[in-house]
Design goal:
With about 375 residues, this protein is α+β, with helices and mostly antiparallel strands. Helix content is about 15%, strand content about 45%. β15 and β16 form a beta hairpin. α5 packs antiparallel against α6. It is elongated and about 80 Å long. It comes from Magnetovibrio blakemorei. Forms a ring-shaped head-to-tail homodimer around DNA. Its main location: cytoplasm. This is Beta sliding clamp.
């Protein structure tokens, strides 16, 4: 394998693939990126056996071939080379080394045979549909913060993606929960997705996908089976195993009988929560909401720091209600809402509360209260 490639192009591809490579590996080949040169392109492939990414970029290939090189080391070398540089990669010596030359710099990297690199991207993926990058990003943005990090409840360590119905219309819905809060977002069901199984996309896959689609406005091809999912766009192919588990019946968690409704300006509410939470204890982060006709008082206290209150105007006509929430959870929800006004549907101090953006039913958040 021998080729010349622009530093910027190689750095962009390496930044995409090296994130998948774990820093500590008991299997040496998994620390490497597979490099395949041919047809005027360099294809980079990295995997951790659960997640696999391929990225292709243009290159001047003088000798086709393939090898594998240490992913993080190669990335650091390319990152530290000067802007605008051309890089020559040469693995033709046959001594298990790849030479990287750029200007007066020369590096020799130990390689492992490409034949040892695991193949993960094959297999039958019967469900296929296209989704705009902005739609997929929206589904991820509005739900991923609620993914559980508790490894014992592994079936909550991802986003549950499935076909559903909303007011009689078919939708593609994403749901995440950690038992304390639940986030749900949906978009019109794409053609070809109506027969899809309900799947749980792992947290690491969600985060890597989110980074990749930040850079694109392309249509994303989604292909999936009950065990795997694949996202293809802009020369990138991301393939992931799915979480083998059953996502809980989340619709039972969404309360139906919340009869008290409060509307409040999102930014003013978020700023007030942020201010009063400065005094709450690091452990509980509790903030109390006292709802009364036309007003909302936020308060927090701790034995070490003292107490704080803040008052806002609100549209509320129900009976007086005091309810406590984790302020960090409230602020995370405020960051996902784009509109000016939020609507909170409440029942009592011990029951879950629904939070929505006024006039937008495509996303909802359920938050469990806490004692204050």
């Amino acid at each position: 394998m021998k080729l010349i490639i622009e530093r910027a192009a190689l750095l962009k591809s390496l930044s995409h693939v090296q994130n998948v490579v774990e820093r500590r590996n008991t299997i040496p080949i998994l620390s490497n990126v597979k490099m395949t040169a041919g047809d005027g392109k360099l294809r980079l492939n990295a995997t951790d056996m659960d997640l696999d990414i391929v990225d292709a970029t243009a290159a001047e290939v003088s000798q086709p071939g393939e090898t594998t090189a240490p992913a993080h080391t190669l990335y650091e070398i390319v990152r530290k080379l000067p802007d605008g540089a051309d890089i020559e990669l040469d693995a033709t010596s046959g001594d298990g080394q790849m030479v990287l030359r750029s200007g007066r710099s020369r590096f020799s990297l130990s390689c492992l045979p490409a034949g040892e690199f695991p193949v993960m991207s094959g297999g039958d993926l019967p469900v296929n549909f296209d989704l705009a990058a902005v739609q997929l990003k929206d589904l991820i943005d509005k739900t991923r913060f609620a993914i559980s990090t508790e490894e014992t409840r592994y079936y909550l360590n991802g986003i549950y993606l499935h076909a559903a119905e909303q007011d009689g219309a078919p939708v593609l819905r994403a749901v995440a929960t950690d038992g304390h809060r639940l986030a749900s977002a949906e978009t019109p069901l794409p053609d070809g997705a109506d027969g899809m199984p309900g799947i749980i996309v792992p947290r690491k896959t969600v985060n890597e996908l989110h980074k990749l689609i930040e850079e694109t406005e392309a249509e994303i091809r989604v292909s999936l089976s009950e065990a795997k999912i694949q996202f293809s766009f802009d020369g990138v192919v991301l393939t992931s195993k799915l979480i083998d588990g059953t996502f809980p019946d989340y619709e039972r968690v969404i309360p139906q009988g919340n009869d008290k409704e409060m509307k409040v300006l999102r930014k003013a509410f978020g700023d007030a929560v942020d201010r009063v939470s400065a005094i709450s204890t690091e452990k509980s982060r509790a903030v109390k909401l006292t709802l009364d006709k036309g007003s909302l008082v936020l308060s927090a206290s701790s034995p070490e720091s003292g107490s704080a209150t803040d008052e806002l105007e609100s549209d509320y006509a129900g009976e007086r209600l005091e309810i406590g929430f984790n302020s960090a959870y409230l602020l995370e929800i405020m960051r996902q809402v784009e509109g000016d006004t939020i609507v909170m549907s409440l029942s009592d101090a011990a029951s879950p509360t629904i939070i929505r953006e006024e006039g937008d039913d495509s996303a909802l958040y359920v938050l469990m209260p806490m004692r204050v």
